[in-house]
Queue: 3 jobs
Job 1
Amino acid sequence: MKIKINQNELNKSINIVQKAVSLRTPLPILSGILIEAKNNMLILTATDLDLGIKTYSPCEIEEEGSIVVQAKLIGDFVRKLPSNSYVYIETMENNNMEIKCLNSEINILGNSAEEYPDNTFDNEGDSFTIKSETLKNLIKYTHFAAAQENIKPIFTGCLIEIKNNFCTFVALDGYRMAVKKEPVDYDGEVSVVVPAKTLLEILRIVEESKENTEITVSESHVSFKLENTIIISNLLDGKFIDYEGIIKDNYATKVKAATLDIRDSVERASLLAKDDKNNLIVLDISDSNMQINSASEYGNVEENVNVEKEGEDLKIGFNSKYLLDFLKVIDSEKIILNLIGKNNPCFINEEGSEDYIYMVLPVRIS
């Protein structure tokens, strides 16, 4: 292999595929990136056997070839090279790779590309196209509510459901649930559960994309094709919970508040709430005021937020982290808290929008 490539292009490509590099693996070769040069493209591939990412970058090829190199080493070196400079890569005998750029040079001992797992990125199944902006919103509004660890692995994923030309993403962890809907131009039906960590990597890549994303769903895998990158992931096995059955509308209290006001107040109150295992803050809603309290052995915080209230006065406790996760992703100026009672779930949505519901369970106040 003998190629010339722009540092910015190479650095961007390495950053994209590094997300799939396996940190702890019985297969040492999976800690590397497969680098292939052919058809005037530099193709970088990484996989941990659950998640795979392949990305293409234009380059000048003098000699085609392939090699596997340690991901962290090449990533750290290329990142520290001067921006917009040209990088010259050449492979030698015995899987040695030489990288030159201006006055810098490094030699890396790699592995044969033939030892790398033959991870196919040709996922055959039902395909549909979605606007990248739409996909970004679906992921951004939901992925954080999936479980980090759970005795039921299904809850570490997000449900992707399509029916009646609407795409719905659902994530829950037993304490809160996020449901986001967006219209899509697809007449078929889909119902799969994708690992939340996969969606987080897609969110990072799709944020810079203006083009549409092609999603293909097979029995065991889902793939996302956007611009010069393909991401493929295993699906999670199991039956997802009936999320529609969780959503209620028998509210006793409805509260409308300015998003910025309540977010700032909850953030300040959460500074003391962190000393409590439940991150407990208490909302005391009365007339046109919502008092937000938290206390610990170091002191207490009291915040007051002007609100519009319908229904009964209410005093209810929440985990401040669960409220802040929601408040940090939404863009609307006002939110509506729909409350059933002090021991029942709270359903929050943006004013004037029915396409996003965030449910959070209360914490019992002693």
Job 2
Amino acid sequence: MNMHVEIECKEQWFYSGGRRLSARVFLTAEPPRAVAVLNGATGVPQRYYADFARWLAKTQNIVCMTFDYRDFGTSARRSMKASDATMVDWGLHDQQAARDHLAEMFPQTPLWVIGHSLGGLLMQFQKDLDRIDRVITVASGPVHITDHPFPYRFTAAAYWFLVGPPATAIAGYMPGKRLRLGTDIPAGVFWQWRRWCTSRSFFAAEMGRTLPLPDGTGLKAPLKVVAIKDDVLVPPHAVWRLMDYHQGATRSQLVVDPAAYGLTEVGHIAPFAARNKAIWSDLIA
């Protein structure tokens, strides 16, 4: 492929539960060898993944679609305070709709799913997993507050018990920007996220209720589970738990050590940041 060709990016939209969601599709210069839907992390807008998506299209000949979850980023259609979105809406329904949309666009091309944090966490609850040809998850796994190393564990405890609840109750949403704790997220997302991360059973109590029963054998495709060595939000030992949810997949794992790439840090949020481009080839290898 000609590395000097400018990659075309098309604005798209699709519906999830009656909500119109915004997407961007980064197209290849030649017929693609695969198409990939990139499911983002909680509170991370799709624009953050643009450099990686463009790199996939330009250097790997893989069409990549990014999108924003309902009531967030470019998919926001009303005030954050009016949102009724939950973590299940984002990690189950919106991701399913995005995958279905991309599959409809490229019905004859191998379909990949790349999930960052929340982006890979709830796939066992989704449908038609047998239609996926490959899954790569990055920094994704069920994490309890006691999984965090010190001193970050104190920060997490303060977020879940001291700062987050009153701020969300007062504002009607989690005011991350105002608190300098990232982006704003809907209250329903925050409360469900908090419930999972402060429970030893994580989301198990909601199976059969807000979550359907999982299908641990539904995914037959290769599953690559990637952990980041210096990730204090979802440390490697929590990431490995994700493999237990997909007994039917051919599973492999990778720990990314920033020092091995000449990097000082990568952490939980930044694996897809342009400054950490050195790790990208190994993420998808």
Job 3
Amino acid sequence: MTAVPTLDEYPDPKGDQPSELKGIGGRVLVADDDANVRNLLRHSLRRAGYDVVLACDGEEGQEKLEADEFDLVITDARMPRCDGFEFCRSIKSNPVTAHLPVLMVTAFGERNHKLEGIEAGATDFITKPVDVAYLSIRVRNAIQAKRLHDAVRENYRRLQELEKMRERLVRMLVHDMSGPLKTVLQDLDQIRLHTSGNSEHCQEATLRASAETRRLISLVDDMAEAAALEKAAMPVELDAVFLRPIIDLVLQGLEEPRGPQLRTRISPGVPAVVCDARLMRRVVENLVRNAHWAVREGGSIEVGLERLTDRPAVRLWVKDDGVAFPEEAEVFASCQGEHFFTLGDRVSDGLALRFCKLAVEAQRGLIGVSANDPGRGATFWCDLPLA
């Protein structure tokens, strides 16, 4: 049977250190009421390269924790005033120290103490008499895990800062773009009103410019509202809503003399759904505009509404006969944030569809897309629960 190393068997700290006892540096708090054990742990850990602070019980250990920062706590299970279990619970209940690993020293065979230690939040156990080589490996592993945890916390903090910067940038862009775009739209409307006798070509150009300006204003609004929906910061006002009037209103505003043919296919007696009427109007408008972008000259767009038979929901769809659509579901996988997706040889902005996805899901609905048979165009759909 291999003898457990004792304090006297190791050379002076200035001498060569066995490889299995070499540490990775760090600050360790040792709480134990036995002076011999405290000195053994201090000597062994200092030789391994750790900075060691001693406490005679959990109460003093708590005072040391409040006064300084540590990478690891080693505590005896049995101590007067404040034992290791109470000390461990105190460490884990404090948000400032909850991430600290705790090694608990117990007597050999004390199974109940180990179970109580696990319940208190202990990371690992060291059995008396202390095997210094085993201790050094456990300490090294615990501190490495703690440093990985610290790195994750720091990266998360930096990610939160970057997210706040992105939010500020979105707000600035929305504010700085909305004003000029609305001014351009007003000026275009005035030009159209005062050039009624000019050429048809001039009138068409003005109409196209007005339509594209309105589209840009809609995209700016999508940018702001998508950011709010991602953070769940936008209030969603759910109510019983009939979708037919929303569809009619959207299509009336999007009809163009030379645009694609817009038609509806509404099943009779479609009941009300639970949704936010304002958000759904934006969703329908974005889906129809997206279909308009994919449709060739002379094409058509169909907006449909029906009650589903397999579950208590209503499906709204926007179907176009434009360019062939690629594989199903790629569109919502790729339209994250400012990315774009391609429909055949046409490119559409992914921001509008990203808004649709966030808006429908915020209303407890489902949204998807499928290719039309035989490969002409696509059908975007969203399912909303019955009221």
